[in-house]
From TrEMBL:
It comes from Paenibacillus silvae. The keyword Transcription applies. This is HTH-type transcriptional regulator YobV. Keywords: Transcription, Transcription regulation. PROSITE patterns: HTH_DEOR_2, WYL. The keyword Transcription regulation applies. InterPro entries: CBASS_pafABC_assoc_protein (IPR051534), DeoR_HTH (IPR001034), HTH_11 (IPR013196), PafC-like (IPR028349), WCX_dom (IPR057727), WH-like_DNA-bd_sf (IPR036388), WH_DNA-bd_sf (IPR036390), WYL_dom (IPR026881). Residues 2-57 form the HTH deoR-type domain.
Length: 316
């Protein structure tokens, strides 16, 4: 921890110039005395730390000092910083922000303007349009659980509406199609499961600790589970031309084909659950399920119930 703090202090001084000891102490949640000890340690290690006196004084570094950047090229740095800034749009993290500062600090001053422009050539914004505070709090607790190998507890509502209480061993946070998921070993199910964060409530750290299990995350095991042939059902959908662009966004242009009568056909595969019916109904009157017949019938039944609900609300 101290080593990380020392490196972070150097980076901050490179990027921001002079800083007050009190500022650094507040930033790292330590005492001012600890910061001065850190400054002494940096000086003994050969880092040219300078203490300036007076009203505009503070702690700084000898002008022109830079960290060694031999291991990374300019393109490497741009790619890393762009990725870090993108993930930070929905998952803020002080350590990640400091890492961006560290990487920026090793860019020569003459190239800094071009570097900053390159890291803003495109922005991936994963943040929600409204009220991200609840998500940030969940991510913070889960991060702690992953870092400290500590179980977490929460109430969970499945896609089918079933309410359960879970204790899990958090392994990996997954961002997929603008939604955060937790891949964790569930004590109740005795297997790894995916949990959608928006369905998790009352997320807290548990007293239990765990040993991280060997999982080949490169193979994205959650994707394999979701796309298992026995977990999916083939569906044929007919779209009106006015929502052709939406169908193409979901299924790809090559999978949205004209039927010769002004409509478009897509053959897709999804797990059959409440999400599927909500997804189909989301296209309103501009989609028709052609096959299988039981899904077609279920969509029709749900649509009829929706009509009845509105009729009853008007009568009452």
């Amino acid at each position: 921890m101290k080593l990380e703090r020392l490196l972070a202090i150097v980076v901050l001084l490179i990027n921001r110039g002079r800083l007050q000891a009190k500022e650094l102490a507040d930033m790292f949640e330590v005492s001012v005395r600890t910061i001065y000890r850190d400054i002494d340690t940096l000086g003994q290690a050969g880092i040219p730390v300078v203490t300036y006196q007076g009203a505009s004084g503070g702690i700084g570094l000898t002008e022109g000092y830079r960290l060694d950047r031999n291991l990374l090229t300019d393109k490497d740095l741009v790619s890393i910083v762009t990725a870090l800034r993108s993930i930070s749009t929905s998952h803020t993290n002080t350590a990640r922000e400091l890492l961006v500062e560290k990487l920026s600090s090793i860019v020569p001053e003459a190239k800094n303007e071009d570097f900053q422009a390159s890291t803003h050539r495109f922005i991936v914004d994963y943040s929600t349009w409204t009220h991200p505070e609840a998500l940030q709090q969940k991510l913070k607790v889960i991060d702690q659980g992953i870092d400290q190998l500590q179980c977490i507890r929460f109430a969970y509502c499945s896609a089918e509406g079933a309410q359960t209480c879970r204790t899990v061993e958090p392994h990996t946070l997954v961002l997929k199609r603008h939604a955060w998921y937790l891949y964790a070993f569930c004590h109740e199910r005795n297997e790894f499961r995916m949990f959608k964060l928006v369905r998790m409530k009352e997320v807290t750290l548990d007293t239990q600790h765990f040993e991280r299990k060997a999982v080949n995350l490169q193979d994205r095991p959650w994707q394999q589970e979701w796309s298992r042939p026995d977990n999916q059902i083939g569906i044929t959908l007919k779209f009106h031309s006015r929502v052709r662009h939406l169908a193409e966004e979901w299924f790809g242009i090559e999978n949205v084909l004209p039927d010769g009568n002004g409509y478009y056909i897509s053959q897709v595969a999804f797990p059959e659950d409440n999400w599927l019916y909500g997804f189909i109904l989301g296209f309103g009157a501009d989609v028709e399920v052609l096959e299988p017949l039981h899904i077609r019938d279920n969509v029709c039944r749900i649509a009829e119930q929706i009509v009845q609900n509105y009729k009853l609300s008007v009568q009452t």
